[in-house]
Amino acid sequence: MEFDTIAAISTALGEGAIAIVRVSGEDAVEKVNRIFKGKDLTKVPSHTIHYGNIIVPDTNQVIEEVMVSVMRAPRTFTREDIVEVNCHGGLVSVNKVLQLILTQGVRLAEPGEFTKRAFLNGRIDLSQAEAVMDLIRAKTDRAMNVAIGQMEGRLSKLIKRLRQELIETLAHVEVNIDYPEYDDVEEMTHSVLIEKAERVRDEIRKLLQTSKQGKILREGIATVIIGRPNVGKSSLLNSLVQEKKAIVTDIAGTTRDVIEEYVNVRGVPLRLIDTAGIRETKDVVEQIGVERSKEMLQRADLVLLVLNYNESLTAADKELFEAVQEKDTIVIVNKTDLPQKIDLDEVKILAGNAKMITTSLIEEQGVDELERAIAELFFEGSLEAGDITYVSNARHIGLLAQAERTIADAIEAVHNGMPIDMVQIDLTRTWEILGEVTGETIHESLLDQLFSQFCLGK
Ligand code: GDP
Ligand code: ZN
């Protein structure tokens, strides 16, 4: 494919001492060479880096001292010629360099355009391209590892294998359609068909089962801390937040007034919701009311219900237990440094399947155990096995669920003795749907939408 030459700043703004302007396209080397004083970049070998100055061509005025890498197609990220200008100065000088490059008739890249080209030029498939985006957004090492695994094509490989198996299965169906007069062939085909289709279905199911964990790694476990006033909610929040200095950012949530904070608990990102509310008011349950707490609960993947070891259970406590019935909950009985007044047997009965942990946050007791409980609740240790292929992307999950339904239809059709061409349709459809994950069968507008979510310069 032929594209124009594009450029963008490809390092995160304000981060690090070196900023890079990336230029990709047929004219990349020639265009940068016009404003570079040093070696003739059009003559240097591919994949080499060169010291020199960026100059305004007309005046010879030096803009910036730089290192320029020249990488020629096809062994580059976009499979086009790429030139990267490494600037030492800050934002201002990197911007000047970019502006100068743009005045040479290079177009400013759209967000995600480099990655889009990598995809369109066949360098990476779609799920890998999406992984680039995940990688940029990854909040913990584990999330990053999942993204890297996907970028390296782990998911793509699996999907490709499943599609291959479907093709082979379809070939069996073809035989059956072409030679319907042979009863033996039909017999054999049906059993082979079912066996193969079931294997593909099982693999799709297995992948779908990782989606809860995948989604969590990608988006964080939406966590809500609830409890009566003074039981230690803020203290719990603070010990989760302070111990892990890995809080990434405060980002504005989807709803007004809701602050979300990320905490890295043993590689599991917790997304603490409405912590501002907990921080600012002393009486969350009383002030915002149980109704409001329930609203918060609806959006939670995980509820941390805090009780006071030093007080007996109250009606409000019991109401909170009622409200969390349907949720993954960990019950925390706090203030064990004080005399026991709570009836722990009663707590256990109310907790049901939920894990109960005792803490003294003031003495920093029990937080470790709590963190372990959180990790176990969501990953049951399975995350330690590094070779699992996770699906975390909502688009992939949707497609896989669709594929699972379609292949289940195919299997049922065979069982019910439906005409074999019906089965063929379902299997072909499954093959197509799986192809959308890797982008082998995909529509143009969807592509634009996907790539526009990327950061600039990627
Ligand atoms: P919240 O209203 O539920 O957010 O509770 P806070 O976290 O603000 O704590 C209320 C009070 O209990 C504060 O004075 C804390 O210092 C105190 N507190 C928190 N955890 C403990 C604990 O484990 N032991 C004791 N003795 N006091 C605690
Ligand atoms: Zn508080």
Automatic annotation (TrEMBL):
<feature type="binding site">
    <location>
        <position position="251"/>
    </location>
    <ligand>
        <name>K(+)</name>
    </ligand>
</feature>
<keyword id="KW-0963">Cytoplasm</keyword>
<keyword id="KW-0342">GTP-binding</keyword>
<keyword id="KW-0378">Hydrolase</keyword>
<feature type="binding site">
    <location>
        <begin position="230"/>
        <end position="235"/>
    </location>
    <ligand>
        <name>GTP</name>
    </ligand>
</feature>
<dbReference type="InterPro" id="IPR018948">
    <property type="entry name" value="GTP-bd_TrmE_N"/>
</dbReference>
<dbReference type="Pfam" id="PF01926">
    <property type="entry name" value="MMR_HSR1"/>
</dbReference>
<dbReference type="InterPro" id="IPR025867">
    <property type="entry name" value="MnmE_helical"/>
</dbReference>
<feature type="binding site">
    <location>
        <position position="249"/>
    </location>
    <ligand>
        <name>K(+)</name>
    </ligand>
</feature>
<dbReference type="Pfam" id="PF12631">
    <property type="entry name" value="MnmE_helical"/>
</dbReference>
<keyword id="KW-0630">Potassium</keyword>
<feature type="domain" description="TrmE-type G">
    <location>
        <begin position="220"/>
        <end position="379"/>
    </location>
</feature>
<feature type="binding site">
    <location>
        <position position="230"/>
    </location>
    <ligand>
        <name>K(+)</name>
    </ligand>
</feature>
<protein>
    <recommendedName>
        <fullName>tRNA modification GTPase MnmE</fullName>
        <ecNumber>3.6.-.-</ecNumber>
    </recommendedName>
</protein>
<comment type="subunit">
    <text>Homodimer. Heterotetramer of two MnmE and two MnmG subunits.</text>
</comment>
<dbReference type="InterPro" id="IPR027417">
    <property type="entry name" value="P-loop_NTPase"/>
</dbReference>
<dbReference type="InterPro" id="IPR027368">
    <property type="entry name" value="MnmE_dom2"/>
</dbReference>
<feature type="binding site">
    <location>
        <position position="255"/>
    </location>
    <ligand>
        <name>Mg(2+)</name>
    </ligand>
</feature>
<dbReference type="InterPro" id="IPR027266">
    <property type="entry name" value="TrmE/GcvT-like"/>
</dbReference>
<dbReference type="InterPro" id="IPR005225">
    <property type="entry name" value="Small_GTP-bd"/>
</dbReference>
<dbReference type="Pfam" id="PF10396">
    <property type="entry name" value="TrmE_N"/>
</dbReference>
<dbReference type="InterPro" id="IPR031168">
    <property type="entry name" value="G_TrmE"/>
</dbReference>
<feature type="binding site">
    <location>
        <position position="458"/>
    </location>
    <ligand>
        <name>(6S)-5-formyl-5,6,7,8-tetrahydrofolate</name>
    </ligand>
</feature>
<feature type="binding site">
    <location>
        <position position="254"/>
    </location>
    <ligand>
        <name>K(+)</name>
    </ligand>
</feature>
<keyword id="KW-0460">Magnesium</keyword>
<keyword id="KW-0547">Nucleotide-binding</keyword>
<feature type="binding site">
    <location>
        <position position="234"/>
    </location>
    <ligand>
        <name>Mg(2+)</name>
    </ligand>
</feature>
<keyword id="KW-0479">Metal-binding</keyword>
<keyword id="KW-0819">tRNA processing</keyword>
<feature type="binding site">
    <location>
        <position position="123"/>
    </location>
    <ligand>
        <name>(6S)-5-formyl-5,6,7,8-tetrahydrofolate</name>
    </ligand>
</feature>
<feature type="binding site">
    <location>
        <begin position="249"/>
        <end position="255"/>
    </location>
    <ligand>
        <name>GTP</name>
    </ligand>
</feature>
<feature type="binding site">
    <location>
        <begin position="274"/>
        <end position="277"/>
    </location>
    <ligand>
        <name>GTP</name>
    </ligand>
</feature>
<comment type="similarity">
    <text>Belongs to the TRAFAC class TrmE-Era-EngA-EngB-Septin-like GTPase superfamily. TrmE GTPase family.</text>
</comment>
<comment type="function">
    <text>Exhibits a very high intrinsic GTPase hydrolysis rate. Involved in the addition of a carboxymethylaminomethyl (cmnm) group at the wobble position (U34) of certain tRNAs, forming tRNA-cmnm(5)s(2)U34.</text>
</comment>
<feature type="binding site">
    <location>
        <position position="22"/>
    </location>
    <ligand>
        <name>(6S)-5-formyl-5,6,7,8-tetrahydrofolate</name>
    </ligand>
</feature>
<dbReference type="InterPro" id="IPR006073">
    <property type="entry name" value="GTP-bd"/>
</dbReference>
<dbReference type="InterPro" id="IPR004520">
    <property type="entry name" value="GTPase_MnmE"/>
</dbReference>
<feature type="binding site">
    <location>
        <position position="84"/>
    </location>
    <ligand>
        <name>(6S)-5-formyl-5,6,7,8-tetrahydrofolate</name>
    </ligand>
</feature>
